[in-house]
């Protein structure tokens, strides 16, 4: 029978990007870029966010693409952020119809790919988030229609901090972040407990601190428990540029997240107890119940 260690390793690798997926993501980026080039003066585009940091979970959706505008589009910066979002949305609707949806900081383009019961998509990206961006020194400005202003961000700083955390944790950090984001995405919760899920990654920079203790189950139990304890803390943008990441959750949402994180920590404790008492099959089933179909039973 699969050991708990083997099960977690398999789970981890199932949440990793593979070559077919990265090829599909690049092709989608190119497709959207080719189209938007006919509408806007775009300097360059790149895949970013959790996708580029290797902290994206499965199924693969909402892959962020920054479209860095040329200086000749600078007029947008003196307007409300809704102006560029509306223009991008209108343009994308021409090509993608109602599959293009306006969000607070981006336009989501859905490619109509559906995940199956095991969360597989035949290695295809479900959707991308098109983010218009302007360069500002070594940082970027992106529209935030929720706040009604342009906000600063820096994907390079976020990526560097994730690498630091990963290395300080024997290179297991990104794997655990993907796992908790997978738990967070589980439809059993209805709405995601932690929203935005970037908050899980930001909290992990402190809550999943090295050294790695050597056992996935124990580390995961401690991680859920610390996330529950600290969900009410203020979590600033790790780059110190944008609004606090925790600002997107109101009190009721944080309360709900805490309850669900505590329940997950408790389920993890019970799973560990099964292992201790030699009930490996029960332990595997408990972890599967906690995470969802990508956690293997065999
Ligand atoms: N409040 C913020 N201030 C500055 N930058 C932010 C802020 N929120 C998000 N970002 C940046 O924008 C990126 C995309 O945001 P998003 O909410 O899609 O998070 P994500 O890390 O990509 O997570 P997910 O896996 O849910 O897509 C983040 O990875 C981060 O680099
Ligand atoms: Mg994202």
From TrEMBL:
Q: Which residues form a coiled coil?
A: none
- Give the matching CDD domains: NT_2-5OAS_ClassI-CCAase
GO annotation, biological process: defense response to virus
Q: Which domain of life is it from?
A: Bacteria
Q: Which Pfam families match?
A: SMODS
The UniProt record lists the keyword S-adenosyl-L-methionine: no
For this chain, one GO molecular function annotation is: nucleotidyltransferase activity
Q: Which UniProt keywords apply?
A: Antiviral defense, Transferase
Q: What is this protein called?
A: Nucleotidyltransferase
Q: Which organism is it from?
A: Falsigemmobacter faecalis
């Amino acid at each position: 029978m699969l050991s708990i260690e083997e099960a977690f390793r398999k789970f981890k690798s199932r949440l990793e990007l593979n070559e077919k997926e990265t090829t599909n993501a690049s092709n989608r980026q190119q497709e959207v870029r080719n189209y938007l080039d006919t509408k806007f003066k775009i300097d360059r585009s790149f895949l970013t966010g959790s996708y580029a940091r290797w902290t994206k979970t499965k199924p693969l959706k909402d892959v962020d693409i920054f479209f860095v505008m040329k200086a000749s589009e600078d007029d947008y910066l003196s307007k409300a952020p809704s102006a560029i979002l509306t223009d991008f949305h209108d343009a994308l609707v021409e090509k993608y119809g109602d599959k293009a949806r306006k969000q607070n900081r981006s336009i989501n383009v859905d490619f109509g790919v559906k995940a199956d019961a095991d969360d597989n998509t035949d290695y295809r990206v479900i959707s991308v988030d098109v983010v218009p961006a302007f360069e500002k020194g070594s940082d970027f400005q992106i529209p935030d229609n929720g706040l009604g202003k342009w906000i600063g961000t820096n994907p390079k700083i976020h990526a560097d901090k994730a690498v630091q955390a990963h290395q300080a944790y024997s290179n297991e950090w990104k794997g655990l972040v993907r796992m908790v984001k997978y738990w967070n995405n589980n439809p059993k919760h209805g709405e995601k407990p932690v929203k935005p899920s970037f908050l899980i990654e930001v909290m992990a920079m402190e809550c999943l601190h090295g050294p790695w203790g050597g056992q996935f189950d124990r580390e995961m139990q401690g991680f859920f428990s610390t996330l529950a304890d600290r969900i009410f803390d203020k979590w600033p943008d790790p780059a110190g540029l944008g609004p606090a990441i925790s600002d997107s959750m109101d009190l009721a949402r944080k309360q709900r997240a805490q309850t669900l994180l505590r329940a997950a920590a408790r389920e993890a404790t019970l799973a560990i107890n099964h292992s201790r008492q030699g009930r490996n099959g029960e332990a595997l089933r408990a972890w599967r119940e906690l995470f969802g179909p990508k956690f293997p039973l065999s």
